[in-house]
Every structure is written in structure tokens, then in C-alpha cells.
Amino acid sequence: xxxxxxxxxIQHNIKNKSHFSDKAMPLFFLTMALISVxxxxxxxxxLVVDAxxxxxxxxxSEVFSTRLQPLSxxxxxxxxxxxxxxxxxxxxxxxxxxxxxxxxxxxxxxFASKKLRKxxxxxxxxxxxxxTIVYGFFAYSVVTPILMTLIPSLEPKNVLSPGLVMGIxxxxxxxxxxxxxxxxxxxxxxxxxxxxxxxxxxxTFKVVIPAAISGIMSSIVLAISRAxxxxxxxxxxxxxxxxxxxxxxxxxxxxxxxxxxFTSGDAGSGTVGYYSLYAVGLILFIFTLTMxxxxxxxxxxxxxxx
Length: 306
What we know:
Layout: H1 3-15, H2 20-57, H3 60-63, E1 68-69, E2 76-77, H4 80-111, H5 114-129, H6 132-150, H7 160-169, H8 171-183, H9 187-195, H10 200-211, H11 213-228, H12 232-237, H13 255-266, H14 272-302
Antiparallel strand pairs: 1-2
């Protein structure tokens, strides 16, 4: 085909705007985008409106207290026991996930051969595909009995067991995102360090990790957000005790497990206990939103462009 014929064909396609798909598909994509945005606004609106009904009936001095007895004759809605349980399980999970996930990311990105990487990475990511309820039963029926033989004072429902299992669950998130960040570091930087006499381990810790720190930190922050929002593991294995304690061998309740407990029908519609679900949901939403904003801030502030 000659150049002038190609030019005529291009001009014909530019002028021909009557194709149905050319007009319909942008509208379709816009509709899909608006659905996601409107859904987000709808969720936030519902949380804020119903949470306001809770805060209108419960003073802040009671909300930020350590007494949580929503179903007693004299109910109290202190949020601190739920915050305490959520933070403790998250800390335990990150103690497991960060070292193991980072070690896996370093090995896969810097030391493993391409053939071995292609085999190991899918196996590692299988952990992310296991349903969380399976992790919950694993924590309760396998991990807890093992820990009880090592720690006699450990209660059948406790914070330690679900925290450890939750850490195992989010290892793929830390490992995969951190590996991607390390692989994005240009080879010329690693080759330069090797040329100056650095070993592979020195190059990893002194060149690759500092250059990929924004992606690594983002993966850790997102993993924290995932741990805070985890539901089924803590619901099954940590119990529903609403005590305020720092003893990880005892049963505690997290914000997500509180929501699960009350949505089972314990709180009547329109009661203060019912609206407390939305208050807890709003606080949980603020937690996860804050973590995501921190991850975006770290990426923008410390991210390198190669």
C-alpha cells in the first residue's frame, strides 16, 4: 500500500465518527468509573450518618474509656479495648511478616536464579489465595494447641495465635511488593557497586534496599492496613473478651470481630449498640485510610525515578 493511500485511509477514519462503539465505549468506561466513586461516597456517607447517631448518645469520655459492656443492663461503649486488641494483633503480625517477607523478597530478587524464582514465587503467593477463614481455623486448631504446650498460661482464645497466623497470611504482600521495588533498581547501580568490590550481600543492603526503600515502606504500610482490617482469623481464634490488657496470652476482641459479633443479631436495630457498629466501622475506615495515605506519601516523597 502506497503512502498516499495510507494517508487517505487515516483521514477517512478520523472523519468517520459514526461508529457506535467509538461513542458508546467512553460512556461505558465513564459509567464504570462513576460507579466505583459513588459506591465509595455511599459507604462513607452511611458510616458518618449512623456513627453520628452513636456519638450523639454516647459522650466522648465514655467512648475513650476501657469499659466495654454493650449488652449489660448498664451498657458502656468504651472503644479502647477494641483498639488495644486490634493494635496488638497487628504488631504481632508485622513482627512475623516483615522479617520473613523481606528475607523472601531479597532472596527472590537478588540471589535466586530465574528458574528458581519462577518456581518459588507462585508457591509463596499461594498463601495469599487461601481463604482467611481457613487461616482462622488453622490458628485455633493447630497453632494454639502447639503454643499451649510451650506457654502453659496461654488461654484457648488468645491474641498471640491469630497474630502469628495473620503475619503468615500477609507475608506474600510484603514479599511481592518489596521484590518488585528491588527489581526496579537499575542494574547499572548494582553493577557499579560490584565493580567497586562490593559483595552481593553488601550491594543488596547498601545499594538495592536504600534505592528501593519507598516501595519497601509502602508494602509494609499496606500490610499493616491489611492486618488492621482482617476479620475471620481474629474472630475465630482471639475470642470475644472485651477486657483491656496487654497480656497477649489472654483473649481480646478486635474492631472487626466486634462488628461480626454484633451483626449476628445481638444488637436490635435502632439501638445505641446497633449504631456502635457504625462508629467502630468509621474508626476502622479512618485507620485503613490513614495507612493508605501514609503509603502514598512515602512513595511520592522518597520514590526514585529511574
